[in-house]
Amino acid sequence: MLDLAAVEPLVQPLAAALTARGRRLATAESCTGGLIAAACTALAGSSLWFERGFVTYSNEAKTELLGVPTSLIAAHGAVSEEVARAMAAGALARSHADIAVAVTGIAGPGGATPGKPVGLVWLAWSTRDGTAGAHRLQLPGDRAAVRAATVAEALRQALALA
Questions:
Q1: By Cβ atoms counted within 10 A, which residue in 44, 46, 118, 154 is the most buried?
Q2: Among the residues of 53-142, which ranges form H helices?
Q3: How far apart are CA 83 and CA 56, in angstroms?
Q4: The domain that contains 134 carries what CATH number?
Q5: pLDDT tens digits, residue range 62-77?
Q6: At what angle do helices 4-21 and 143-161 cross, to 10 degrees?
């Protein structure tokens, strides 16, 4: 379970930065199952800057809700840079947000495959001004630790973009 108080020091400056610039955030989450959105909306007044969140745990949800091509998932796997980037782009395209962050990963304890160990997470972002990117995280710990660290990294990335 995510300790929302632990990420509040990340959410408050994010809220302030987005509010000051009149920007809004959308999230697309797989391995975190909505924890990034929960962290954002735990802060009173978040409706001013948090636009929406997509929880796309299954491959079908990634395709149906975010427009991630099934061929992309088939070619690279759901936990890949390509899919994370498509998730972020899809969240931006299907929202009124200015910034979208997306995460897909293997939180464990199972699910690892050759070349994709437990703790592997892809974090991607896309903005209305055309900024896009992704980076690979290899996070230590159990399922809860991987998910909590992913939330923190996503919030840090959103703040950098805000």
A1: 154
A2: 59-66, 70-76, 81-93
A3: 12
A4: 3.90.950.20
A5: 999 999 999 999 999 9
A6: 20
